[in-house]
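Q: What does the predicted 3D structure of non-specific serine/threonine protein kinase look like?
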Amino acid sequence: MAQRVHLLLSIIFFLTLIRFSSQQGLSFVYNGFDQDQGYIHLDGVARIHNPGGILQLTDNTTLQKGHAFFNRPFDFGSDQPISFSTHFVCALVPKPGADGGGGGHGTAFVLSSSTDLTQAYPTQYLGLLNTSSNGSPTSQILAVELDTVETAEFDDIDNNHVGIDENSLHSVVSASASYYSEREGRNKNLTLLSGDPIHVWIDYEDTLLSVTLAPLKIDEKPRKPLLSRNINLTAIFPGGKAFVGFSASTGTLVSYQYILGWSFNFSTSITSSLQSLDISKLPAVPHPKKKPKKTSPLLIILVVILALVVMAVLGGVFVYRRKKYAEVREPWEKQYGPLRYSYKRLYKATGGFNSDGRLGKGGFGEVYKGTMPNGGGDIAVKRLSHGAEQGMKQFVAEVVTMGSLQHKNLVPLLGYCRRKRELLLVSKYMEGGSVDQYLFQDDKPPLSWSQRVAILRDIASALCYLHTGASQVVLHRDIKASNVMLNGNLQGFLGDFGMARFDDNLAASATAAVGTIGYMAVELTSTGTSTRTDVYAFGAFMLEVACGRRPFDPEMPIENRHLVKWVCECWRKGSLVDAMDARLGGKFSLGEVEMVLKLGLLCTCVVPDSRPTMEQVVQFLNRHQELPDFSPDTPGIGVSVPVLRGIPSLAITYTSEISSPSISSSSANNSMFISHTILYGDGR
Ligand SMILES: *[C@@H]1O[C@H](CO)[C@@H](O)[C@H](O)[C@H]1NC(C)=O
Ligand SMILES: *[C@@H]1O[C@H](CO)[C@@H](O)[C@H](O)[C@H]1NC(C)=O
Ligand SMILES: *[C@@H]1O[C@H](CO)[C@@H](O)[C@H](O)[C@H]1NC(C)=O
Ligand SMILES: *[C@@H]1O[C@H](CO)[C@@H](O)[C@H](O)[C@H]1NC(C)=O
Ligand SMILES: *[C@@H]1O[C@H](CO)[C@@H](O)[C@H](O)[C@H]1NC(C)=O
């Protein structure tokens, strides 16, 4: 509603501003051309845009002209003084993408005896004249040109000039577009084809025609005009009558040329004053959007190069990730599918095998703690490096078999993952750590005697299961304190079974000597691993747990270096208790201590066949059976060096109720040892 009232008021306002009186004068004001368009004569491509009322003389079409005239002429007699003033705001907008390339051709303010300029040419003729009318007095044209193309034909000074044209495009006077800055006191250049609105004032007073320019932001007309020239209007317009208006043209170069507002006053007096334009009411200059540029070959090449770079980077990332998470998978592994972990999953679970999560480092590899997402629990991941792929199939089969072994005192093996030169084994994480930490590190509390015996029973039971309980005999091969893990309740778990084979290379056959010094039975180097060598290692472990001393301690004096020898020595001296761990503070059961130490010595007997089986060890530990009688002087007991050839054939013979391997000396024909037959009785 308010808008309509405003519209009505504006119409009244405009109407009152147009005054004609054929004798006294003519004046009008257009603050935009949305009103009183009926007085404007348009031709060519010229048009008024509604709403907004901007007068567009040319658009982006080539070789066009546009004219706009006020359709009433002003008359001047031959003798009376006349004057006129005009002020208009124009904008010459280059075609998008033509930056620097210019545009054409220009706009002119025109006084013409006729509104019909249809015979005129576009381009450098600016829609004013043609080749035949140019320069002819019959043309009856006076123009002020704002020329944006330098035309040599008309001796143009540059491609950004203002000129006064009398019946000819060869300007009588011209100057580069500039304005006088009152503030700076000097002339400043002005770019006509900038797209920014420009004020133009043209005054004709006392035969002097002057042209003044300024950018829109300057609101006062500068005192110094750009051009001044005496003009005899009567000579140009003998008829004493002229129309006022605008003309503009395009050539092969185009620009959008607009008139935003126009005020004009003609009077038959020596001066003329002017109704000023209301700048705030002028329409806005449309700035056409940049059309997507025709892609230059250079741009295409650049884009292609960029695309290649991006692809290379992405490819690199892909290859890097593939390499980072690469695994080795073979068809035969299908059957182990559920046990197979993806490397990525393990990588994420361990925080990229962060050294903060490293639990330990052994000769065979490193162990990392990890946490499976979504409450999958904590895991321990052992990274084993290996040289050859051969034998891998068999090994993985073994690993998987071990994964299927179930015993309450075995650390559960959850699965595996294979990469080039690397095998990863995933087992449950044991929060208690390993037994050796409790025995030798001060940051863990010492274990009580009953805890130690319980752990020994746990491990014995697990080892017994490996030797006899599973569908096939499984050798541990590397029993030692650091492979015995504890949970939060200090229950013992045997870990790492079968892993010792993995030392260095898979080619390590069952006969290769692997293990840890102090836990290795002497016959290992010759006859290889067997359940007997596991028993030997377990014996060493028993002594270690009871005495709180490593089976082999190179820092001790020579005679005490071997724990086995030293314990035996204590026994020989009649004080087995001296061998006990001082940290126990004497709190232990004497009978149990003797049993454990003697059983440890029996298990570490250098004569393999004299060692008990794990089944028997379990029986002894649980006191279901008494130890056989033997003394520190029994051959093979408490000995660490294989000086055995000379040991006389021994016949400590015990009766046994439970069946035990009845080994005769002849069965050990492959052994370098002289076989001893110890028959174990249950003593019950
Ligand atoms: C001319 O301008 C109009 C919009 O003003 C546009 O649609 C057209 O594509 C332009 N033509 C050229 C040749 O730039
Ligand atoms: C030039 O224009 C005049 C009118 O101004 C016309 O009579 C004449 O034929 C035109 N000449 C050409 C070559 O177009
Ligand atoms: C102003 O324009 C003139 C003529 O085109 C030129 O010689 C001069 O270098 C220009 N000055 C500036 C400051 O651009
Ligand atoms: C203007 O031109 C007319 C006609 O050519 C001439 O009669 C008159 O004297 C001129 N006026 C001046 C001031 O030169
Ligand atoms: C036109 O100019 C004359 C002379 O200066 C002046 O008397 C008249 O008021 C002006 N007309 C308008 C509409 O400004």
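A (community wiki): The structure tokens above were generated from the sequence. The CA atoms of residues 16 and 143 lie 28 Å apart. The chain is about 20% helix and 25% strand.
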